[in-house]
Amino acid sequence: MNETDGLRYRRLNRPQVITDESQEPEHKSTSTYSGRVFRLTLLTLAALLLVPLLVAILLLESPIQPQRLSFSEPPLMSGCLEPNFKLRQAERLFEGQLIGPESIANIGDVLYTGTADGKIVKIEGNTIHVVATLGRPPCDFTGSRDDEPTCGRPLGIRVGLNGTLFVADAYLGLFEVNPVTGAVDTLVSTRNPVAGRRLSFVNDLDVTRDGRKIFFTDSSSKWPRRDYSYLIMEGTDDGRLLEYDTVTREVSVLLDGLRFPNGVQLSPNEDFVLVAETTMARIRRCHVSGLQKGGMETFAENLPGFPDNIRRSSSGGYWVSMSAVRPNPGFSMLDFLADKPWVKKMIFKILSQEVLMKFVPKYSLVVELSESAACKRSFHDPHGVVATYISEAHEHDGHLYLGSFRSPFLCRLDLSQV
Predict the structure, then answer these.
(1) Residues 126/87, Cβ–Cβ less than 8 Å
(2) Which pTM was predicted?
(3) Residue 44 lies in a domain
(4) Could you tell me the residue range of the domain that residue 101 belongs to?
(5) Is 120 exposed, middle or buried (CB count within 10 Å of its CB: 0-12, 13-18, 19+)?
(6) What is the mean pLDDT of each run of 10 residues along the chain (418 residues)?
């Protein structure tokens, strides 16, 4: 074998790369088919989800008819409003033994509050006693939505001249309760319209020192308490501040056209009444005596949250509890939606009130304002680790007792520690 033959031999026996070109079109065809199946499945699932959603948006009626609102940019959370963890130093009391203690009053060291099942209770030491039942039992201890109209829902509570309790019940009206005997006297019934309009959401109250006048809020003529999220999102302006005369037993309208009037507090001299206008994140002042009687102006505006109850502080100012905050920096859903009524409509077409509540941040905030509405100090609990859904801050004996419109406990904060 010569050299040329050897080269030819090696060339002929060189390993060959074998490719099955005939299978390639089949592989491409299979891949294309799988992709089509995937895309078709994805589109089908999207249609199954989106079509009912679009039908709901187009055909279902929204339960609310929102008004277009306008807010200023929330105040910066700095200075007096600098975030802190002071509310986390509070202790929970009677956890699981009372639900929704919205408001608190005290006679000496005995505390009184209302609960979600329509009861007025007193807290003496480590014991809870039922003083009175305002509604018609049987009532679910948890205060179910269906039971509220018949069982009642006590909200604001105050102590009167003779040591009796005055109570605002969201569904039933105004009551005077004897804390010793448990006797209940109906002062104002929601069955009787006031100035041609029904009382749908009696909320908070305050009483003059002589016991003659009771100032109270009716948050809406349209929405009851259990639909308070509708009231807030709709921006309804049918709330009123009312006055009840305990001698003549007559009710008169002091202010009308308010958007979710809530907490009520008389000034130390009883010449004006402060009213929290929750939806608008502000507090109004209504003059009830003196030269300015009948006049009204804004006491505090553009608050860092949506105010609930207002109570006096020992420094001469006012404790204001925020039902929800307007963080800045941060995102406030209510501020964002204020001028977008069509979005609000869609939200309530597809989401229930209970689901919507889950999107409300559990940021707890209590602010102390001076007599001139300047911020003095603030207590925070970001994420609501200890204190949640605060509705009122009631000061007694160096402590703040924190009520809640839905939590199953009271909180107590030692002011000497913060």
Answers:
(1) no
(2) 0.87
(3) no
(4) 79-414
(5) buried
(6) 48 48 50 72 71 68 94 97 98 97 98 97 97 94 93 98 96 98 98 97 98 98 96 96 98 97 98 98 96 94 98 97 96 94 92 87 96 98 97 98 97 97
In residues, how long is the chain? 418
What is the tally of structural domains in the chain? 1
Q: Angle at Cα 187 formed by Cα 186 and Cα 193, nearest 5°?
A: 105
Query: What's the one-letter identity of residue 361?
Result: P
Q: Which contacts of 52-55 are long-range, i.e. CB under 8 A and separated by 24 or more positions?
A: 53/350
149 within a domain of the structure (yes/no): yes
Question: DSSP label at 21?
Answer: T
What are the structure tokens assigned to 330, written together? 């941060």
70's CB contacts (< 8 A; 6+ apart) are: 338, 339
What does residue 27 show for φ and ψ, rounded to 5 degrees? -65, -45
- Please, which residues bridge with residue 297 across strands? 285
Question: How confident is the model at residue 20, as a pLDDT?
Answer: 46
- Is residue 336 included in any domain, yes or no? yes
CA gyration radius for the chain?
31
Task: Output the six-digit token pair for 239.
Answer: 């709330």
CA atoms of 128 and 54, how far apart (whole Å): 51
State the pLDDT at residue 30.
55
CATH number, domain with residue 189:
2.120.10.30
Which residue in 189, 168, 188 sits closest to 120, CA to CA?
168
Partner residues linked to 111 by β-bridges: 106, 123
Tell me whether strands 213-218 and 239-245 are parallel, antiparallel or unpaired: antiparallel
| Residue-level pLDDT at 70 | 94
- Nearest residue to 315 via CA among 275, 368, 264, 272: 368
Q: Does the bond joining 408 to the residue before it have cis omega, within 30 degrees of 0?
A: no
3-class secondary-structure state, position 184: strand
